[in-house]
């Protein structure tokens, strides 16, 4: 009685053509394709791999060695250069490995198809098929290379720095960097000064993000619902006025508010607070009042964009829904809770999540208002510093590059985790049948 294996062998038109042999021959790139009678493709692959290997072998080997040692002669070897060349070597090696595996896979798949009766195309058909299948990748390639050297390379450089001892007192080329493993992360959570600063800044960052963003969304929703009411006249004028704060560059607005909130000569103290209450509020020198001021400024800066989103969504809601609700005897709150609010949230949820992520890393307002101040005793961060502005201060003011890189990794993980979790839960990102 024939087995399943025997039946499969009977279905093969060319059983003597061995896919495994094609894959083994492709250990030398191009030879497997030549075995499959794709001579031009095999020759091209062999030449490309040989050229890459001969041109990049010495750079990759020396780069990987330098990545391990980070230099051996102080004042002559710059560890930053060794680190950069090592990262580039890793990227080139990853590309080589990826295309090497694709070369083996391609030879195996072609051999499998030949075994099943596939006819090897001639040169003209081969070029046409290659052009048709590779054209989309050809268009994507420039963007991919730009992404690698503008995003991936700096990101990897920062990640590697987090595991070195790069700081003000150990800066190359005078000194050589060395790998310290997870010591920077351990210091961040075990040394009292670093631990207290980190958790204070992290807690304020979370409070700032939630309070400022939620208030700007709530204000925008309230104003959008009120202005959308059919009894309101001059809608276009009102909407134009509400959009104006968005039209002014944010850094200009922040600098103006910084002057308005100044403790000594600011208009808010001189012409509003002092005449009414006979005192001045220390907006710039007291941590609590500085935080209140920054939150109010962010609400002013952030609500116009969200207001524009909500206004567009409200105008797209059919009036039939509200007419049906009126016939059922629903009041204003019930119509808002069951019709307006769900529609607005469904349409804008991804953008609102981006507002939270943006404010989590909103460096401009923190730095331009009062450079993260006022100072706090026993901390390396100011009273209004959030994680991103603290990292900036550690990098450019204190030259604590290793600690700044370690905190940046933690910051990136927090933002990515929050965004991924929220986007996955958002109905807008689910398939229509799975909502």
From TrEMBL:
One of its GO terms (molecular function) is ABC-type maltose transporter activity. This is Maltose/maltodextrin transport system permease protein. Its main location: membrane. GO terms for cellular component: maltose transport complex. InterPro entries: MetI-like (IPR000515), MetI-like_sf (IPR035906). It is found in: Cell membrane. GO terms for biological process: maltodextrin transmembrane transport. Keywords: Cell membrane, Membrane, Sugar transport, Transmembrane, Transmembrane helix, Transport. CDD domains: TM_PBP2. Belongs to the binding-protein-dependent transport system permease family. MalFG subfamily. Part of the ABC transporter complex MalEFGK involved in maltose/maltodextrin import. Probably responsible for the translocation of the substrate across the membrane. It is a multi-pass membrane protein. Residues 202-422 form the ABC transmembrane type-1 domain. Pfam families: BPD_transp_1. The chain crosses the membrane at residues 43-61, 81-102, 137-163, 206-228, 240-261, 292-317, 338-358, 401-421. The keyword Signal does not apply.
